[in-house]
Amino acid sequence: MSTEFHEEKISGWGRFRPTRSDVAWPERRGEVTEIMSRMQPAPNGVIARGTGLSYGDPAVNTGGHVIAMGKYNRILNFDPATGHIRCEAGVTLSQIFDTAVQHGWFVYVTPGTSRLTVGGAFGCDIHGKNHPTAGSFAQHVLSATILTGTGDIVTCGPDKEPDLFWATAGGIGLTGIILEMTIELQRIETAKMISHKVVTRDLEDTFAKIQEYSNATYSIAWMDGVRRGAKRGRGFLMMAEHAKLSDLPPQDRADPLAAKRHPKKSLRFGIPSPLIRRPVALAFNEIVYRHYLRSAGKPQFVPLKDYFYFLDTYDNWTRLYGGGGFIEYQVLLPMEKAYDAVKKMLDIYDKAGVLSFLTSMKRLGKSNRGYMSFPTPGLLFSVDIPAGHERTLAALDRCDEIVRDVGGRHYVAKDGRADGAFFRSMYPQYGKWLDIVRRYDPKGMFSSNMSRRLGLR
Question: What pTM does this model have?
Answer without folding.
Answer: 0.93
